[in-house]
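My main concern about presentation is that the manuscript never shows what a single data entry looks like. An entry of this sort, consisting of the sequence and the corresponding backbone structure tokens, reads as follows:
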Amino acid sequence: MNPRTTTSPSLLAADAGATVRRLARCVGDGELDSPAEMYQVLGALRLLADDLTHLLPALQGRLEDGLLSGQVVRQAGGDSVAAAWDSVGEVGRALAHARTVALLMTKELQNSQVALRGLAAP
């Protein structure tokens, strides 16, 4: 953990997930009461999806750096070096796909905001 931070990345990710679940409960409980607020929520979610598009490649980069520095090793049997590279490659492909999905989500949330704009005016 970086000494400059007081919270680990895994805790930050868990907090982000908990926040999204809280938001889902608020929306489900009817607390989203106007098109204007929905417009704002969609905008914030669009920014979140956009942030994910930048975070996912950074995660892959950290994994690759860890592999190159010897901090990341494969524990299961077989040729551990080749298996570790294969695993990192699989993670990279999955993260690249997730990034594509996040990019699409960002665009669709923006489209939703544009469509809602006329209803959200005060």
Remarks:
- The chain has a mean pLDDT of 89.
